[in-house]
Amino acid sequence: MLTSSSAMSEKIAIKNKPLKVFITGASSGIGESLAHQYAKEGATLGLVGRRLELLTQIKSNIKTDCEIYAVDVSDQKKLQKAANHFIKKYGPPDIVIANAGVSTGTLAGEKKDLDTFKRVIEINLFGVIHTFLPFIEIYKKKKSGQLVGIASVAGIRGLPGSGAYSTSKAALVNYLESLRIEMRPFGIHVTTIAPGFVHTPMTKHNCYTMPFILDVDVAVSRFMKAIQNKKCFVIIPWQMKIVGTIMKFLPAPLWDFLAKRGPKKIRKMIQ
Asked: What is the number of alpha carbons within 13 Å of residue 246 lying toward its C-beta?
């Protein structure tokens, strides 16, 4: 029989056990920073991205256990295979972070942007669904686990010139909310993080002012705090929370008037 002191020591050991974290979109930007910062905390990592050479480089600079998977999150079967491999080797991850996403300018009324529309939604929405599915039944059985989706303030209202991106992120916010309510009885936490502007390869081509933009490592440290605290929904930084609240409640005519003057993203094809 364990004494009270030995039982307490065992609890502390379990509490301090290194995390296992599975991250998509890990080859650059937010995903890369998440990988490095969790590695500094000793986490075992599963990193998913489309670019093997970048994943290999990231792994070479990480000292903890790390598996890399060159997979497009729109490919459900390959992502399931990657998840199965990680689970078999290390057990279920404590946290799954669906971070993979793309952004480009699109015009909602242009037929020639239809393929780009489909591709953005395929990655930004279905990529998240594909990421979570391999882990949900396991989490239900163990009555624990955390699913994290990286959404965007752009999902609060439709932005002209960014119809695909706004649509994908708005749908993602609602998907995550539905999932959060469904998972709660099983002890599974679902966290939605909606960033404003962050210095990443995704934003470096934006040729307009990006208010309250954060350095990627600063942003990610705040993401990780929200994840640790098991927040349901958080907008980062706090200034964008104010902006987002105003955006949400503006009457449609006023929003239309203000938004039509806003900057537009460069239109390009997404591979």
From this structure: 10
- In this predicted model, what pLDDT tens digit does every residue of 196-207 receive, in sequence order? 888 777 776 766
Task: Spell out the residues 6+ positions from residue 155 whose beta carbon is closer than 8 angstroms to its own.
Answer: 166, 168, 169, 170, 171, 172, 173, 194
Catalytic sites, residue numbers = 165
Torsion of CA 201, 176, 48, 226, to 10 degrees: 70
Amino acid at 101: G
How many Cα atoms within 13 Å fall on the side-chain side of residue 197?
A: 14
Where b means 16+ CB within 10 Å and e means fewer, 149-167 reads bbbbbbbbbebbbbbbbbb
Where does the pLDDT of residue 15 fall: very low under 50, low under 70, confident under 90, or very high at 90 and above? Answer: low
pLDDT top residue among 239 and 263 = 239
Mean pLDDT score, 80-101: 97
